[in-house]
């Protein structure tokens, strides 16, 4: 039996269409007409011998075959891109220095390093994990090539905005505001100020007229998680790296005020980076884009 060869360009358009929520948007992104994109989709359906999409109201939905192909397509594209990058950039060498907040170091760093090392095995990656203000200072002074930073008011010349990520109150599943209704202050578990999460959260409590107190102050994210898991108070972060024993608290059910989103930014030491730094930045941004879909 001769199996057909799936078309890489068609697979990329297929994946992009469902990531963007529209094949019309995918057509704009890849620079093709909508009829050309439709032809690519028909070609894929002919190759697999099954319909991949079906009408759902005014839009399109994946069939069972489409869902299976979407999963395979992402893996095929990842492997294709990894192979091309490896062959084209195998000459890269040297070192690159990356700074990360603790959220990303604990949750996403292994994937970033794994992808980068498979493609650029001759490059040494140095990682610094610290609070945001220290990372930004080191990047601005040239001690780091790249760093990820929380917060909009960053004093650095070379910035790339990445996303606005929802911030949530985090605590144990059984945490309730009942004692707050009795006049007790909200017990907070937080980093020391300045902090891109602590200061807006306190501002939200003040605006809502809710008293608060710092129950635990920790320099480490693991310390915040441990204190919140022990029921000593609630903390405020994104859902990135959220431990299983903690949950995002619903503001309506808990009586807590909603929190503003937090900016995520890539800070660069130089406006014109060398190819090694650019290669790492591309992988960091790619992993973030993929993971944020599940946050």
Characteristic key phrases:
D-Maltodextrin-Binding Protein, domain 2, 5-stranded mixed beta sheet, alpha/beta, 295 residues, 3 domains, Arc Repressor Mutant, subunit A
Structure description:
This protein has about 300 residues and is an alpha/beta fold. The protein folds into three domains: about 10-90, Winged helix-like DNA-binding domain superfamily/Winged helix DNA-binding domain (Arc Repressor Mutant, subunit A, Orthogonal Bundle), CATH 1.10.10.10; about 95-160 and about 265-290, Periplasmic binding protein-like II (D-Maltodextrin-Binding Protein, domain 2, 3-Layer(aba) Sandwich), CATH 3.40.190.10; about 170-260, D-Maltodextrin-Binding Protein, domain 2 (3-Layer(aba) Sandwich), CATH 3.40.190.10. The chain is built from twelve helices and twelve strands. The strands form four sheets. The protein has a five-stranded mixed beta sheet, with helices on both faces. The protein has a three-stranded antiparallel beta sheet with strand order 10-7-11. The radius of gyration is 23 Å and the shape is globular. The mean pLDDT is about 85.
How are the secondary structure elements laid out?
Layout: H1 8-20, H2 23-30, H3 34-48, E1 53-56, E2 59-62, H4 64-89, E3 94-100, H5 102-107, H6 109-119, E4 123-129, H7 132-140, E5 146-150, E6 158-165, E7 168-171, H8 178-181, E8 186-190, H9 198-208, E9 212-217, H10 221-229, E10 235-237, E11 247-249, H11 251-254, E12 262-268, H12 275-292
Parallel strand pairs: 3-4, 3-5, 8-9
Antiparallel strand pairs: 1-2, 5-12, 6-12, 7-10, 7-11
Helix pairs in contact: 1-2, 1-3, 1-4, 2-3, 6-12
Family: Belongs to the LysR transcriptional regulatory family.
Organism: Aureimonas phyllosphaerae
GO molecular function: DNA binding; DNA-binding transcription factor activity
